Amino acid sequence: MKQALYNARVSQQQRTRGRPRAFDRDRAVLDAARLFWRRGYSGTSTRDLTAALGLSTSSLYAAFGSKAGLFEEAVRTYAERYREIYRQAVAEKDLRTVIDRLLIDSVHEFTRPSDVHPGCLLSSAAMTDSTSTLDTSAYYAELHGWNERALLARIERAVQDGELAAGTDAAALTGLVQSVVHGLSVRANLGATHEDLMATARLAHELLCRHLTASTP
Amino acid sequence: MKQALYNARVSQQQRTRGRPRAFDRDRAVLDAARLFWRRGYSGTSTRDLTAALGLSTSSLYAAFGSKAGLFEEAVRTYAERYREIYRQAVAEKDLRTVIDRLLIDSVHEFTRPSDVHPGCLLSSAAMTDSTSTLDTSAYYAELHGWNERALLARIERAVQDGELAAGTDAAALTGLVQSVVHGLSVRANLGATHEDLMATARLAHELLCRHLTASTP
DNA sequence: CTTCTTCTGAATCGTTTGCTCCATAAAAGG
DNA sequence: CCTTTTATGGAGCAAACGATTCAGAAGAAG
């Protein structure tokens, strides 16, 4: 199994034998992710990658196995960041803070100044999978399924704990919050400014909190 | 200018001289759109297109000029449907109906039973433009800019007409509605059912209307 | 009928694609 | 020192790509 070799060498590289790698592997993954983000998987050739990353074809294949392997690693790397946003948000104590953190952190993630083209990498990369070993569409659905279930569980817990009224439709509430988050990503992608998105996040938070208050027994 | 020839022959074809076209042009555009939607521009080869549309290479090039030309026509065709949703929604009399129509019509558009893979075609096709004659990213931004401005103007008019309180932040309200609509598209894309999205649309409408009522003088 | 115009199918062109091979370079182990 | 191990750079392969060409087919106009 050759693939294991590429994944075994994690970012914390310990000194091994042989000639040391001349480029920063993690940096290369991030640069590749940005390229895939903008032009899609099929739209990004290996020549584009080697040119942008500043390394030769053989170096790329020695480090990542294939174009699909590099793509897969780029997707997984970015995916963890989104999962982390949900993980931290649902850990908050009261539901208002959960929603607030989720919305605000999402806006910050979608409009990072380091990324020239903001928005969620996955929503664009997920479409053009082609013959990738990773079924990106399924992976993307799985990731967002995980995030959505985490949020739903948190809201249902709030209902059980009496933080919300017993009759509250947790699923519908989850769906709305998810829609707003996804919508923020799309609008970031379309060029909305950080301030625009923050205004949306604040208004959404206000309306949702008012709804929660109204539902509170 | 050869391109003019391809565009001149509109769907309402009047009998011309020469051998008649053996396939349905409009149907071919829609089928191509679905293919581009799923696999992106670069991910869809001309062989894929000719196979799925059931026509030969020369027929495709005679009818659309190039792969980019077919893509451009597919994008423009779909874009008009989305523009129409906004056009009809903002024409409604009171603002509550505007928002209701926009949300509900969007859900219906994003989960049409005829389309196997639902969601907004443009949000996926816009990423993988490559060397297309149409700068899809810019076209996409322009379309949604038009829609957003139409909605913003409608909300501002509501403020001026006294339908809403004078202090209402029309821009923030527009941003939130837009985010929800885009979010509905993304979730449809991720496999959310028609009922899920309808529940989201209803809840969003409820919260927004409550907000409007609270803002009313 | 003939002529004119347009569409179709097959073959194919030149380019780009993802990827491999191999000689060489640079470190570590003995 | 020499051997082993890994990375680099460049040349290049087989396949797929977008696009073109051309002989023939099919209807409209005269």
Automatic annotation (TrEMBL), chains A, B:
<dbReference type="InterPro" id="IPR009057">
    <property type="entry name" value="Homeodomain-like_sf"/>
</dbReference>
<feature type="DNA-binding region" description="H-T-H motif">
    <location>
        <begin position="45"/>
        <end position="64"/>
    </location>
</feature>
<dbReference type="InterPro" id="IPR001647">
    <property type="entry name" value="HTH_TetR"/>
</dbReference>
<dbReference type="InterPro" id="IPR036271">
    <property type="entry name" value="Tet_transcr_reg_TetR-rel_C_sf"/>
</dbReference>
<protein>
    <submittedName>
        <fullName>Putative TetR family transcriptional regulator</fullName>
    </submittedName>
</protein>
<keyword id="KW-0805">Transcription regulation</keyword>
<feature type="domain" description="HTH tetR-type">
    <location>
        <begin position="22"/>
        <end position="82"/>
    </location>
</feature>
<dbReference type="GO" id="GO:0003677">
    <property type="term" value="F:DNA binding"/>
</dbReference>
<keyword id="KW-0804">Transcription</keyword>
<keyword id="KW-0238">DNA-binding</keyword>
<dbReference type="Pfam" id="PF00440">
    <property type="entry name" value="TetR_N"/>
</dbReference>
